[in-house]
Amino acid sequence: MGENKRATRDGFGDAILEIGKTNPDIYVVDIDIGKSCKTGAFSKELPAQHVNVGIAEQNGAGVAAGLATTGIIPFVVTYAVFGSLRMGEQIRQEVCYPNLNVKIACSHGGVTPANDGASHQSIEDMGVYRTIPNMTVMMPADYYAAKALVKEAANTYGPMYLRFTRDAVPVIYDENTKFEIGKAKRLTEGRDVAMIAIGDTVHLALEAQKELEKAGISARVLDMHTLKPLDEKAVLDCVRDIGRIITVEDHNILNGLGSAVCEIAAEAGDAKVKRVGIQDQFGMSAPYERLLEINGITVEHLVALAKQEW
Amino acid sequence: MSNIGSRTKRGGKMKNVSVEELKERAKELRKTALTMIYEAQSGHPGGALSAADLVAALYYRELNINPKEPRWPERDRFILSKGHACPIQYAALGRLGYFEESHLHTLRQEGSILQGHPDMKKCPGIDISTGSLGQGLSCGVGMALAAKRRGEDYRVFVLTGDGELDEGQIWEAVMAASAWKLDNLTMMIDNNRLQLDGPCEQLIPHLNLTQKMREFGFETYEIDGNDMGEIVETLDKIKASKTGRPKCINARTVKGKGVSYMEDQLGWHGMAPDEEQYRTAMEELERGL
Fold this sequence. Notes:
The structure holds 2 protein chains of 2 kinds. In chain A, helix 1 (8-22) runs parallel beside helix 7 (143-155) and helix 8 packs across helix 12 (299-307). Chain A has helices spanning 8-22, 40-45, 57-68, 80-86, 88-96, 125-130, 143-155, 202-214, 232-241, 257-268, 288-294, 299-307, and strands spanning 5-7, 26-30, 50-52, 73-79, 103-107, 136-138, 160-163, 168-170, 185-188, 193-197, 219-223, 226-228, 244-252, 272-278. The longest helix of chain A is centred in the N-terminal third of the chain and has 15 residues, at 8-22. Chain A folds into 2 domains: 5-170, Thiamin diphosphate (ThDP)-binding fold, Pyr/PP domains (Rossmann fold), CATH 3.40.50.970; 185-307, Rossmann fold. Chain A is built from 12 helices and 14 strands. The two termini of chain A are 30 Å apart. In chain A, the strands form 3 sheets. A 7-stranded mixed beta sheet of chain A has the order 3-2-4-5-7-6-12, sandwiched between helices. Chain A is globular, with a radius of gyration of 19 Å. Chain B has a 5-stranded parallel beta sheet with strand order 1-2-3-7-6, sandwiched between helices. Chain B: Its cofactor is thiamine diphosphate.
């Protein structure tokens, strides 16, 4: 693992500028928090492809839908909590139902807007979008994954939700790492336990895996960057090869990655799953790492859980 | 990805239609829409009938469209933001040949292209799916903005209800249209004064609506939305306008227009007529009240 830490919103900002320069149909629809979501450079360098609707999420969603009907590929950019819940029904009605090529690209996923408090932390968003037909839901694990998946999203037709971190998270990939939407990355092999993680928690699973290795426990780590469509085969491989799965996410344990994995495992009927994530409780103003700790989203907890009998 | 097509003008064939003929068309649309609702025993007659004259004027005279090529990139757009009034739009699309007229007998049935609310994936000629109120104007703003950015000269017409103006998103869209000087956008308000739970005036009054729209930066017109002559005259003025501002037609209409027992009645927002009521309605629509 690299020593670097970078926020995944930076990966989005860099990627969207890059692809915007090569494709005039790529637009950014900002909702007055573009600077914070890293579209500042895009707005300056590509003003003809940039729209700012002001503090009006619902209109932003509809404007993006209207743009998309003409072949434009709009990225609606805001914070995860607003990009899911404040405009959720507009996205359902005007983007997902008519299956338009609109991307919702949100910074401030999970508890990363830590000191902003519960109003800005987003623990429900992926669950909401996971249940809307036609929608793809992704959370890259690091800066390079964010860059790569933003490019994949731009090149793949359909409504998509991309969730980024406000806070810096460790860089685990490099510029050349390839990502495929809907295909989990198996980062380590393992026999004793599987850890399936998404977004900013992938590095925690990797650190836990190293600790476990020292204790003679072999852990398989999956980066499940696409929550929907879920890589069911990758989950089923864990069910059949290992039978003990820990899910890790910076999202409510209800209806996020933990739920999605449980659904597959339960139908397969041959595995036990433990869910590590936000414990169905609101956050508060506190350091990001502290908020994770309050919810048991830590390397120590993952290691302890993996060592337990269950 | 780009779906910009040839720049040849392929629409615009139905321009010189007289007011008298448009009145006939509106009558035909009313009868068709009511028949659809009667056959389906489901639908929203009140708001379909109030909007019939506006819809007829758009489809038979104003819009630069080509029914043989519903997705022609340079076509004018029409968004029925008050999606529940769709039978009146379906009637126009069917009569113009966007689809076989036999579909007009399938409203709200399983497998139909004519969903309870307009579905752009199923029905040719629908420019955006609607049904959840308050959202169509934002989509129209997006389409009008795309035209400006790409130097296209198509226009966008959005028909909203007046009850629908309760939705905050409408005002977000109004402010954006004004800020971006979308003079290619026309918002038409089917101001029939009634919403589901009661008269708009008693629920959330919209107060000086025309004035409000003017102060929001729109070029405004307040007309009798069931008077074809006034509608045509207004559309002509809008076409000739050089103010550079988005347009708003506040069209005073009568809910259930043309059917005596439905006119101005709350109960006919979302109810289908029975056989006897249907027969009466068709007679009244044919001869006029």
